[in-house]
Amino acid sequence: MCVAGCDFVESSPHLFLHCNIFGSVWHLIYGWIGVSVISPYYVPDHFNQFVYCGGIGKNRRSILQVIWYAAVWEIWKERNSRLFKGKESPPLQVVERIKSISYMWLKAKHTSLPFQLHGWWLSPFTILGIG
Predict the structure, then answer these.
(1) How confident is the model at residue 129 (pLDDT cuts 50, 70, 90)?
(2) Degrees, nearest 5: CA angle 58-36-131
(3) Backbone angles phi, psi at 11, to 5 degrees
(4) CA distance linking residue 91 with residue 22, whole number of Å
(5) Cα separation of 52 and 123, whole Å?
(6) Distance separating the N- and C-terminal Cα atoms of the chain
(7) Residue 91 sits in which domain range?
(8) Residue 29 in contact with residue 95, Cβ under 8 Å?
(9) Entry pTM
(10) Please, are residues 75 and 11 in contact by the beta-carbon 8 Å criterion?
């Protein structure tokens, strides 16, 4: 069963997209990046939709890929924290970790990017001048 206590069988689509707790992380992320979409059922379809929801520009797609991978990683870590440690973080805290880790991953790969965490936190595309 899902570790969020929603009485559904845990599957990849449920855990990463449709669970009331973990799925709400995506709604917060969509608000952060400034898009509105309806999530598809399957995880690979969600990845494709998410990466292209910002348009077809290569820079946007690359940034959205990093955000998507960070989100899936943090959702997985939150699931394991709930299951193995009995510790729960609210979705807003999970999104804060996603913002931080995606920023760190981007800065590690592109050290010359001229943005700081605060600007990234507020609006990732605007701070990069592609919003």
Answers:
(1) low
(2) 40
(3) -135, 170
(4) 7
(5) 18
(6) 40
(7) 12-127
(8) yes
(9) 0.89
(10) no
